[in-house]
Structures are given as C-alpha cells and as structure tokens.
Write a structure and sequence with these properties.
The protein is α/β, with parallel strands linked by helices and 352 residues long. It has 11 helices and 17 strands. The protein binds NADP nicotinamide-adenine-dinucleotide phosphate (NAP) and zinc ion (2 copies).
Length: 352
C-alpha cells in the first residue's frame, strides 16, 4: 500500500482537514502519480457538502489533477517516470460495454469509477482524489500533458475544459453561430474561451455586472446581466446554442426564450435543486433542452491537444492547500477569477 497525505472532509459539510490514507499498491497497469497541482471544481463543493446524495467519507476531493509519473506497473508502456500527466473525473470503467467501446466511458453502463467518492472496481476501497500528494490510476485513464505548457493553468482543463469542450463538439459549435454562456465561473470562463476559439460569436449571461470587462477579455463580444429583465427581453430568439454552467437554481425559462428556432441549450451545471421549465418555451420555436457529462478519455486528450495548439489555459488563482476552506467560501459568493488551483507542494508545510 502507498502512504498518502491529503485534505479530506470527514463528514458532509465538514471543513477540509489533513488526512492520512493509503492507495493500493501498483498493479501491472497502474501508474503512481505525484500530484503537483489540482483545480478546485464546484463539484468538489457539492459533494463534500453531501448535496448530491450518497457519499463516502472521509472524502478527499479533486479531479483536475496534473502531476508527474513516479512509478509504473510492469505492463505500462505509454508512460515513463518523469512524464507530465493529467487525471480528470474518471479513474476506471467496465471497459467492455457499448458506451466504453464508443469511448464514452462517462456513460459506462456499470457506472464509471469516479476519481473520488467512488469505490475501486477490484479492491472495493474508496477512491480518493487530487487534494493529496499521490494518486494511483490505471494507464488507460491517464492523460498526456505536453512538457511546454503551464502545468497549474492546465489542471482545470481536466474537468472544466472537457465539460465545456464536449457539448460544443457534440452540437457542432462553430463559425457563424451565436453562442451564449450562462455564469462566469470555472466552467463558464473555459466555455467563453473555447466557443471563441471555435469561431462563434459569444455572449455571456451573468448576474455579476462587475465581470463584464473580464468576459470581453476572455473572448465574449457581449455581456447581458441576467437579472435585468429588459436586457433579457432584448435578446429573445437570438442564440443557436447556450451552455448553462450555473451551480444553483436559476430561471431556465428566461434563458430558453433567448434561443432561436431549433436552438439548443445544454445544461452542465448541476444544481442540487430542480428548476421549472415551461413547455411553451420549448414548443414555440422547437427548442431543445439537453445535458452533457464531462467527456470520454479520448475526447479529453483531443481537448488537451486542441488547447495546447491554440494556447488555451485557465485563468487561475494559485492557492496553498491550507487556504481551501476559504476558497470554498469565495466560490459560494461566485468570487473566483476564474479557477482556484492548489499548489500541492504546500502540503509539506503541514509536516511538523
Ligand atoms: P463556479 O466556478 O462556482 O461557477 C458557477 C457560476 O454560476 C458562478 O460563477 C456564477 O456566475 C453562477 N451562479 C452561481 N450561483 C448562481 C445563482 N444562484 N444564480 C445564477 N447564477 C449563479 O462553478 P463551476 O466549477 O464552474 O461548476 C458549475 C456547475 O457545473 C456546478 O454545479 C458543477 O457541479 C457542475 N459541473 C458539471 C459537470 C458535468 O459534467 N456536467 C462537470 C463539472 C462541473 P456569475 O457570477 O457570472 O453569475
Ligand atoms: Zn469538476
Ligand atoms: Zn462500461
């Protein structure tokens, strides 16, 4: 077993605190990764607070992991010690069902094995995530990170990047389209950058008018304050595609009305509470309301390579692990520019 140090929530809603645990010893296909940076996703906040139902505590969150290979199992050929690698939201799946064969492991019929808050398939022990110094992952679920990128700014691509890239690819976002993004947080700011890189004309919906200047810098050409009814009414029937990244309940109907005929609004935000949808807003205009879940491993590699080529990374605030509870409080207030990333070297300062 591999001794590991990290930060965990010991029960739902608990503040994160130091935690020692063990990862499984390396099997033939496993890779031991020393974690250098880990992004902080709102899904970490939802899950440590027990907002999404069944949970396993103590919970070590973190699924935007970048690190270097420390050791490899006997059958690993794709990676060697010292390579920079990434791990996103999945560390395993059945690898045999139709979805797995179609490179859509996130929809594995047996349920994918999540990077944390899940049980390993073989040994049945809890998986623990990236707010730690090490992780053990099967080689098929490890992503390659180019050696010339900014590693800290690349970490958020492993969840925020792929979660926004995948639905835009699925629905063919591109040149000549009007795209809107709802919410300028971790996912939202990546969505603005990616939609602009795909050649779309991008509008941001936000409650925070103070984010206007940043949105324009990130690639939006227009900002609409979603709490302003007149401003919302002025953009009805405008958009081909909307990506909704909001983490809490909000008015879906007001946003649906801004879609064109046959326009598509994709939910990636995972509010723990339901929101009403008026059929009228779908029926009139034949509009489509859809959802999307992260992306498969092959598509995640494709996204990392796309971002490398187009020099796209996340705008981050680098923090020490000791600041994590304060970071969660700031995320509650939508006060993050635009992703917290933990410098995992800071774990060492906890040692006596
Ligand atoms: P985040 O950085 O905290 O950003 C969320 C943004 O939503 C905020 O910055 C804010 O933007 C807006 N917002 C928050 N509360 C709101 C409210 N009450 N009404 C309207 N807008 C509100 O969160 P994130 O890490 O980007 O994650 C966003 C959501 O996506 C979370 O629910 C997360 O669990 C989910 N997620 C889903 C997937 C997937 O595969 N589908 C993957 C990762 C994350 P403004 O200040 O601009 O209004
Ligand atoms: Zn995430
Ligand atoms: Zn499967």
């Amino acid at each position: 077993m591999i001794k590991t140090t990290g930060y965990a929530a010991h029960h739902a809603g608990a503040k994160l605190a130091p935690f020692e645990f063990e990862h499984r010893e390396l099997g033939a296909h496993d890779i031991l990764i020393e974690i250098l940076y880990c992004g902080v996703c709102h899904s970490d906040v939802h899950q440590t607070r027990g907002e999404w139902g069944a949970n396993i505590f103590p919970m070590v969150p973190g699924h935007e992991i970048v690190g270097s290979v420390s050791r490899v199992g006997a059958a690993v050929t794709r990676y060697k010690v010292g390579d920079f690698v990434g791990v996103g939201c999945m560390v395993d799946s059945c690898r045999e069902c139709v979805s797995c064969h179609e490179n859509l492991e996130q929809f594995c019929e047996e349920g994918f094995t999540a990077t944390y808050n899940s049980l390993e398939r073989e040994q049945g022990i809890p998986t623990r995530g990236g707010y730690a110094n090490y992780i053990v992952v099967r080689d098929e679920f490890v992503l390659r990170i180019a050696s010339n990128v900014d590693l800290a700014r690349t970490a958020p691509l492993l969840c925020a990047g792929i979660t926004t890239y995948s639905p835009m690819r699925q629905w063919n976002v591109g040149v000549g389209q009007k795209v809107a993004v709802i919410g300028l947080g971790g996912l939202g700011h990546m969505a603005v950058k990616l939609a602009a890189a795909f050649g779309a004309e991008v509008t941001l919906f936000t409650r925070s008018s103070a984010k206007q200047e940043d949105a324009l810098r990130l690639g939006a050409s227009k900002v609409v304050v979603s709490t302003d009814e007149a401003a919302m009414a002025a953009v009805q029937n405008q958009f081909d595609f909307i990506l909704d990244t909001v983490s809490a309940p909000h008015d879906l109907n007001a946003h649906l009305r801004t879609l064109k005929r046959d326009g598509v609004m994709v939910m990636v935000g995972m509010s723990p509470d339901s929101m009403p949808v008026s059929p009228e807003n779908l029926v009139m205009g034949r509009r489509i309301l859809a959802g999307s879940l992260i992306g498969g491993i092959a598509e995640t590699q494709e996204m990392l390579d796309f971002c490398g080529k187009h020099k796209i990374t996340s705008d981050i605030e680098l923090i020490n692990i000791q600041d994590i509870n304060h970071a969660y409080e700031r995320m509650d207030k939508a006060d993050v520019k635009y992703r917290f990333v933990i410098n995992m070297g800071s774990l060492q300062t906890d040692k006596p």
